[in-house]
Amino acid sequence: MGRLNKRLDPTQTGNEAEKLESDLRKRIVGQDEAIQQIINIYQTHLAGMSSPGRPIGNFLFLGPTGSGKTRMVEAAAESLVGDARAVIKIDCAEFQHSHEIAKLIGSPPGYLGHRETHPLLSQEVLNQYHTEKMNLSFVLFDEIEKASDALWNLLLGILDKATLTLGDNRRVDFSRALIFMTSNLGAAEMNSILRPNVGFAASETERESAAGVVSGELSGKVARAGVEAARHKFAPEFMNRIDKTVVFRPLGEPELRRILSLELNIVQQRVFNSSVGAPFVFSLTDAAKEYLLREGTDIKYGARHLKRAIDRNLVHPLSNLIATGQVRGGDLVRVDLDETAPKLIFFKEAENMPVYAMVRMVDTSIAPPIGTFAAGAAAQRPRAANAKSTRR
Ligand SMILES: Nc1ncnc2c1ncn2[C@@H]1O[C@H](COP(=O)(O)OP(=O)(O)O)[C@@H](O)[C@H]1O
Ligand SMILES: [Mg+2]
Hints:
By secondary structure, the chain is an alpha/beta fold. The protein has helices at residues 15-27, 32-46, 69-81, 98-105, 123-127, 149-161, 187-194, 204-210, 216-233, 236-239, 253-273, 286-295, 302-323, 355-361, 372-380, 387-390, and strands at 57-62, 87-91, 137-142, 163-165, 171-173, 177-183, 244-247, 281-284, 332-338, 343-350. The two termini are 46 Å apart. The protein binds adenosine-5'-diphosphate (ADP) and magnesium ion. Adenosine-5'-diphosphate is lined by residues 28-31, 65-71, 182, 259, 262-263, 302-304, 307.
């Protein structure tokens, strides 16, 4: 046995973790640090180095509303399980009283209604998306600062021992689960660091954040403010059970711009995968996009506001056009801006386009689970179609 002195690179990630990382980067904008933390823990799990008898990962996601906390969990499930619906979501605000806790764990035998309760957190629910190859579960506790004491106690047991005891004493095993908890605690403090008094002569901070650029130092400061707020509010026995506290950044203009194009793509995918009518393609002019961005920018609600603007200004009018037969399968619809109103206006630019021609016009790389259309399109598409549209 010769002596080696080969330098190893622990920053390399394996193929599986790499796929998760690239899937997350395609879907989530501006939260690279959060993505990195998830990858680290997933990689530890893949290597078999996670602590036994605990969930695979316990994550605390902090940061403002509409910054992608929930979306991150859905995107991870999309990548690993192929379906965002695999995420079991528990809205902590809805489980304040003991009879509501029974919805989670069921009531003890003999109790009125015992037989009718199907606990939300049973092993069957946890395993419902498991396959032979994939047996991870995703559990999301939203807004944990609103959890009642009873819910806290359940949560502490899950985080520490990966078990939950149901009302009828059955045990649920969480050792194959990734647990995510979100809170927008500290968001106000974080925002005041990033966006100090408006009207103040532009400081370095202000100019940076106005341009949507946040330096490493500044983002460190923001992250510390978030973590500080969490330490203040949550008991140490809770914080000690968290593997990673991840602070989501407030989104600036450049991020919202990228999210706009992601979301437009998702709307187009929905048209493709819809079971109602044949698919058509829409395309927005730059002016129309700028309008949506203006209408959808709101510091308080982040990308949520943008999504609402897209629904109101694009999805609803398009739905009306479909329902009234003005837009049909095979159409190309151009969406422009009427500056005087101002509002989006719709024109039919082409009709009777073949499916493969439509597929080429859009980026399907971040498609949701393949629907009927995608399967049909694959059959009709010539082999060397545009690389963008063949990637998935
Ligand atoms: N960083 C992001 N990257 C991509 N999309 C985002 C991002 N943040 C928010 N969104 C979009 O806005 C929607 C609402 O965000 P969500 O993840 O629910 O925010 P919250 O941080 O309040 O949980 C998401 O479904 C997604 O469409
Ligand atoms: Mg959320």
